[in-house]
Specification:
about 140 residues, mainly beta, 2 domains, globular
């Protein structure tokens, strides 16, 4: 698996459990039981492998799902994370690193960029040279 991403990228410092979820990386969509769910409250809890993450679903269950890009949510037990590039292009994260992400755009372009975590509504202005990932 290599080195996992730092825990403070997945939850705020001092957050000891389910009582505080603000600042966690938001899950855009996930697929379970044959249905695709566009999420507003699901988030990443921890990393389990290079593309395996424990995520907290909207029904409060926690499961290990595989991180995939937008076009591959045809399989159950998968999820994706949306990122907005500095030119306002929507991309989906294919791999997380501590300070950067690899991504795939809807047009199929791939790349990598440093990322920042911002809440929806505060991420509308461009962050120069960075991919912006929503947090809950």
């Amino acid at each position: 698996m290599g080195r996992p991403i730092r825990k403070d990228k997945m939850q705020p410092i001092g957050d000891l459990g389910p009582t505080g979820t603000a600042g966690r990386i938001a899950v855009s969509n996930y697929r379970t039981g044959g249905s695709n769910t566009a999420s507003t409250t699901a988030y990443i809890v921890s990393q389990r492998g290079s593309n395996q993450f424990k995520i907290h679903l909207e029904d409060s269950t926690e499961v290990v799902y595989k991180l995939v890009t937008a076009g591959t949510l045809s399989e159950n037990n998968t999820f994706n994370v949306k990122a907005i590039l500095d030119d306002s292009t929507v991309a989906y994260v294919s791999k997380f690193f501590n300070n950067t992400v690899h991504y795939v755009t809807a047009a199929g372009n791939t790349g990598s960029a440093p990322y920042s975590l911002l809440a929806e509504g505060t991420d509308e202005s461009k962050v120069s040279g960075k991919a912006v990932i929503d947090v809950i």
